[in-house]
Structures are given as C-alpha cells and as structure tokens.
Amino acid sequence: MLNYDLSPFYRSTVGFDRLLSMLDKAVGAEQNAPTYPPYNIERTGENAYRITLAVAGFADKELSVESRENTLTVRGSKETGVKDEKRDMLYQGIAARAFERRFQLADHVVVTGAASENGLLHIDLVREVPEAQKPRTIAINGAAKPARTIEAAPEKQAA
Fold this sequence. Notes:
It comes from Roseiarcus fermentans. With 159 residues, this protein is mainly beta. The protein is built from two helices and seven strands, in the order H-H-E-E-E-E-E-E-E.
C-alpha cells in the first residue's frame, strides 16, 4: 500500500483544511472513491475559491447544486427522453451517466454562485469569517509608573 503525506498542503490551504484532514484519514479508501466527473479546486482570492467540474453533455436543467451545513452536493442526471430510433450508437466515449459529487466545506465557507459554460460547471465559494471571530489587534499600553512599596511600621504594644 502506498502512503501519501498531505502535510505540505496544510500550510497553503485556508478554506479547505477540513477537506485535507478527511483525505488524510481516507487514503486507504481512495481506490473506491468516485472519479467522475473530474474537478479542479482553485483559490481565486484571499478568501475566495472556485470548484470547476467537467460536465460535458449535461444541460443546465440536468444539473443541481445544493449547499447544506458544511456539505456541497453536485448532482447530474440525464433526462430519459424518447430516443431517436434511427440512431444506433457505435461507440460512446462521452459519459452520460448520472453522478453525485460531495465536497466538505470548511467553517464559514458559503456558496456565492454557480455558472455553466463550455461544458464546465463553475461554483464560486467565499470564506466569510464572522466579525467576532476575526483576529484583532490588542493595544499594548506603555509601562505605568512603578508600583510603590509601603513599609508598615511595627505596631507598638500597650504596656
């Protein structure tokens, strides 16, 4: 069995760190993972990402994109219409099978839009960290006057 070390990717990912953790755990199950349709994940800005899936042969109405909690699900299914009986397929190299692809999103990553063009489905994501969880700078005050030590005089005992 091959061992893959994904630790170099951790320092270059911001929004998909949970995804890499899950990949790290599932290295043994990689052979059974679906490979259709192929996809790319790219960073388009400091807190912006894009997932691009190759969905050649699928119309917009045959694709669905759903975001629920921290899971993005992309489904595609060909409509089973009336086939042209005059056509006889000699070779079918373009896959037209139904698919479902799931992506685990990091916390605070939301889907902002999806567009289909030239056989590619683009899904745009943005990482929106709430104001309360953003890092903030704390001002450091200058050294105050040194604390004074007050010495107590010994008590006089009554005779």
